[in-house]
Amino acid sequence: MQLAQSHPRAQASTTTRAKRLLFVGPKPPPIGGSPLTVQAMLDELAFYPSVEIRLINTSPALDVRKKMTGFNFEKVKRSVLILPRFIYELPRCDVALVFANDLFAITLAPILLFFAKLFRKPFYLKPVGAGLDLFINAQKKILRGYLMFALRSMDGILTQTQLLKDDLQKMGLVNAQYLPGCRPLAPVAETPAKHSEEFRLIYLGHITRRKGILYLLEALGILSQTCPKKITCDFFGPVHDELRDEFNAGLQSQPNARYCGVAEAGTGPQLIANYDALVLPTYFDTEGHPGVLIEAMHAGVPVIGTQARTFPELIAHGVNGLLVPLQDSASLANAIETLAANPDLHKKMAEANHQKGREFRADAVVEKMLQIVFPDVKLQKK
User: Fold this and answer.
1) How far is CA 6 from the centre of its chain?
2) φ and ψ at residue 289, rounded to 5 degrees
3) CB 44 within 8 A of CB 362
4) H or E stretch covering 53
5) FRET pair for 135, CA 20 to 30 Å: which of 32, 191, 233, 336?
6) How far apart are CA 94 and CA 52, in angstroms?
7) Which of 350, 338, 360, 357 has its CA nearest to residue 301?
8) Is residue 103 within a helix (H) or strand (E), and if so which, with residue range?
9) 246: how many CB neighbours lie within 10 A of its CB?
């Protein structure tokens, strides 16, 4: 695990002391939503010469394909390494910003907050995903009260979704503010004209059960029997052990499905631009703003997703994509066929999705973040 370091391009270039931000979060590798968001923010922060980043990289040194839930030695080891580095760096910084999943929020974050209060440094939490409210409510009364006290004592909780912000504020956490996920607006090269006789789908992300992979394979099987147009789907991402055998069996039974390996980090928009639609049939109840949906926006490609809790914040059904019920392969197949059979609808959704992506550009999100954590300073980009 790589610990505290100055981001290479984020050093001050003026005689005035830079504002120092202690940034605690996971950088790639492994590739995933949170690490890519952290990298996008760090890259954008490098354009602010008056902001110096001190990074504590919390990325796990492990095989992401293995199930990593609950307590384990790797998480204990990371916590033991993070805490002393945080205590060492904090007095030299002006503000602490901590990315945390639910388990981190209930275990290590309150301890980090204690030292931030001790050194009189503002402390901001950036929850990963959109399930912190569900996690809090699932705890026993004493633990729930402890967690609520810690969260209420923070200078800000920067939620990835509007839904989580609203739910936390209803619980009395008025310090919750909305700061969406983001990706850099990378240039997308002109792609060859898509073949009208074939409708090409892409799935880009971790290949796990709750991402709805098996339902997508079922939908492809339905389409191979009922749709006059050829529908294909390329899968990119690490295959988790929990699903490996079933996924491989599904690929063998569906000749219109193909596994293409793990995409290189940072190439999402360029890769997605080669396809007609991105499909994400997840049924995770804690999904936030999946970075791959933002990458599809930047690529100008419509999305076929599910009615997950937060997806309507990103995808307006019938406007910039289509949303189907969770765990429903027949509805998923119908949505794919609808988009494949209507070129005018596809074009309209592609344009609308590209426009929607402006809300999630890394430059806009980082500018807003700096306004929150350094409210009394006007920071200029170079």
Assistant:
1) 24
2) -110, 90
3) yes
4) strand 51-57
5) 32
6) 10
7) 350
8) helix 102-107
9) 13
Could you identify the residue written with the tokens 């705890």?
A: 139
Domains of the chain by residue range: 5-182+361-373, 198-359
The number of helix segments (H) and strand segments (E) in the chain equals 14, 13
Domains 5-182+361-373 and 198-359 share a fold: yes
SS3 content of the chain, % helix, strand, coil (to 5): 45, 20, 40
pTM: 0.90
Contact 151, 128 (CB under 8 A): no
278 token code pair: 């991105």
Summarize pLDDT for 207-217 with one digit per residue, the tens: 999 999 999 99
Residue with tokens 């499909």: 279
Q: Could you tell me the end-to-end alpha-carbon distance of the chain, in angstroms, rounded to an integer?
A: 31
Copy the structure tokens of residue 11. 């050093």
Q: pLDDT of 187-207, one tens digit each?
A: 765 555 555 789 999 999 999
Instruction: Tell me what pLDDT residue 285 has.
Output: 87
Q: Which residues pair with 164 in a beta bridge?
A: none
CA distances in angstroms from 113 to 110, 181, 243, listed in the order given? 5, 23, 38
Strand partners, 183: 361
Q: What angle do CA 28, 71, 133 make, to 5 degrees?
A: 80
C-alpha to C-alpha distance for 125 and 287, rounded to whole angstroms: 18
Under DSSP, the state recorded for 29 is: S
Domain 5-182+361-373 class, CATH top level: alpha beta
Distance of CA 155 to the CA centre of its chain: 23
- Torsion angles phi and psi, residue 98, rounded to 5: -120, 120
Beta-strand pair 51-57/95-100: unpaired
DSSP H or E segment with residue 19: strand 19-25
Look up the CATH superfamily of 198-359.
Glycogen Phosphorylase B; (3.40.50.2000)
